[in-house]
Amino acid sequence: MRNPFGRLLDTAAVFRYHRARIQEFGTGSPGALGWHPEGQQIRFRTLAQIGDLSHRSVLDVGCGYADLYPYLHQRFANVQYTGVEQMPELLDVARARYLHAPGVVLRRDDFLRAPLPPHDYVLASGALNYRQRHSRFIYQAIEKLYASCRLGLGFNLLSAEQPSNGSLAAYEPMVIKAFCETLGARVVLLDGYWEGDFTVFMYR
């Protein structure tokens, strides 16, 4: 992803978006991440349909408060969970909550630029929704995340514009699905579970 100055501006915009929401909704809340509490759980439930995650390694990119970890831990045995988050205000809460939980690793990094160790499954809940200056951002991000999974990649995106002062981007589900198929993946598209949202599974 070229243009380092543009990347810095995009990152700063993401930080501003979440800092404003933290002030409005409070530290540690789904609202601080841009989620409606019910919508967050529905998205987790949808992502968890990617497969049997028991005894599998899962990489949660842009993990926020790592709220996906307890959801998976309650439903799958011996999930090995790694969360990657670049924003310190979010990662500090995640570490306070889950750092000492079994099978949990939490890293501060920009998953779009840092090397990602291979995991059985890579999941991204909301992490690809931010508007970026690079016109092919979403395709490069999907390609990178897919390259990091051994078995499958699952991610959700917005299909309708949200009130976010231009911070979030929406995509056409069939366009995203068609691109994913060019990578040689078996692709499953899920929608209709939450208004303005869709999920894609890519399998090796």
Write structural notes for this entry.
This protein is an alpha/beta fold. It has a single domain, classed as Rossmann fold (3-Layer(aba) Sandwich). It has helices at residues 4-25, 37-47, 68-75, 88-98, 137-147, 173-182; strands spanning 57-61, 80-85, 104-108, 119-124, 149-158, 186-191, 197-203. It has a 7-stranded mixed β-sheet with strand order 3-2-1-4-5-7-6, with helices on both faces. Strand 4 (119-124), helix 5 and strand 5 (149-158) form a beta-alpha-beta unit.
Keywords, separated by commas or semicolons:
Rossmann fold; 204 residues; 7-stranded mixed sheet; 6 helices; 7 strands; alpha/beta; single chain
Task: Describe, in short, the structure shown.
By secondary structure, the chain is an alpha/beta fold.
Share in β-strands: 15-25%
- CATH hierarchy class name: Alpha Beta
- Mean pLDDT across all amino acids: 92
Spans with pLDDT under 50 lasting ≥5 residues? none
User: Mind summarizing the main beta sheet?
Assistant: 7 strands, mixed
Helix content: 25-40%
Estimated structural class? alpha/beta
Number of domains: 1
> What is the CATH homologous superfamily assignment?
Vaccinia Virus protein VP39
Write the layout of secondary structure elements.
Blueprint: H1 4-25, H2 37-47, E1 57-61, H3 68-75, E2 80-85, H4 88-98, E3 104-108, E4 119-124, H5 137-147, E5 149-158, H6 173-182, E6 186-191, E7 197-203
Parallel strand pairs: 1-2, 1-4, 2-3, 4-5
Antiparallel strand pairs: 5-7, 6-7
